[in-house]
Amino acid sequence: ETGVTQSPTHLIKTRGQQVTLRCSSQSGHNTVSWYQQALGQGPQFIFQYYREEENGRGNFPPRFSGLQFPNYSSELNVNALELDDSALYLCASSFGGSRGNEQFFGPGTRLTVL
Amino acid sequence: RKEVEQDPGPFNVPEGATVAFNCTYSNSASQSFFWYRQDCRKEPKLLMSVYSSGNEDGRFTAQLNRASQYISLLIRDSKLSDSATYLCVVQEGGSYIPTFGRGTSLIVHP
Fold first, then answer.
1. Residues of A in contact with B51 (CB under 8 A)
2. Residues of B contacting chain A (CB within 8 angstroms)
3. Which of B46, B27, B9, B10 lies closest to A43 in space, CA to CA?
4. Torsions phi, psi of B82, nearest 5?
């Protein structure tokens, strides 16, 4: 069974740039959720994709967008990067939506915005 | 007021000690509760779900108090390997959005 993978592991960008982060879900899972984790904080829910549709979104501006592919892998796109976007970005996969279900997290992408 | 609150600690305890963490939540419609563990610079991993009747897994016991809107995690006979951050997760019934607390740091020393 293949676990959740994310790429890249680290990324450095400058303000105003755009970034795309990638996530491959665990085998058999059809749901991917994205989180932002700032230093010393818990993960903050960005959005979730279930069968290629967004079915839940946290309190993040529209410049955070994403999509899910037919193989259930997913991308997170962030436009017009700001310094406060520097964080660890985690994706988590699960089966059938995350309602009460265990989520399996990937190792994360550490984004630094200069 | 934050939706899910945890004492960030750190809790510094000797091996063999018993330690307990609490987590309070503000949304009375919350239906699903979990404890995740996160090691330094690693991803969170599910430690245990929390059921209404309380549940135990080896040295770990989780309790839910709906009336007072908090969940707890008790660790008995602490091991060095228990050193980590423990994240409380609360989810409203019917919602896809889990809310994480900021985590409680535990340091177990020899």
1. none
2. 4, 6, 8, 31-32, 34, 42-46, 49, 87, 91, 94-103
3. B46
4. -80, -10
Beta-carbon count within 10 A of B43 CB: 22
Beta-sheet pairing, A44-50 with A31-37: antiparallel
Rounded to a whole number of angstroms, the CA Rg of chain A reads: 13
Taking an 8 Å cut-off on Cβ atoms, the answer to whether B96 and A48 are in contact is yes
Tell whether A99 is within 8 A of chain B (Cβ). Answer: yes
Q: Which residues of A touch B44 (CB under 8 A)?
A: 43, 90, 105
C-alpha closest to that of B91 among B49, B55, B59: B49
Backbone angles phi, psi at B44, to 5 degrees: -65, 145
pLDDT digits (tens, 9 = 90+) for B22-67: 999 998 888 889 999 999 989 999 999 998 888 999 999 999 999 9
A54: nearest CA partner in chain B: B96
For residue B81, the tally of other CB atoms under 10 A from its CB is 8
The candidate with the shortest Cα–Cα distance to A101, out of A39, A26, A46, is A26
